[in-house]
Amino acid sequence: MMREKIDETVKVIREKTNFEPKIGIILGTGLGKLVQSIKEEVSISYKDLPNFPVSTVESHEGRLIFGTLSGKSVVAMQGRFHWYEGYSMQEVTFPVRVLKALGCDILIVSNACGGVNSYFERGDIMLINDHINLLPENPLRGKNDDSLGPRFPDMYNTYDKDLLKLAEEVALKNGIPVRKGVYVAMQGPCFETFAEYRMIRAIGGDVAGMSTVPEVIVAKHMGIRVLGISIITDLCLPDLPQAVSHQIVIKAANEAEPKLTRLVEEVIKEIN
Ligand code: HPA
Question: For the chain, how many structural domains are there in total?
Answer without folding.
Answer: 1
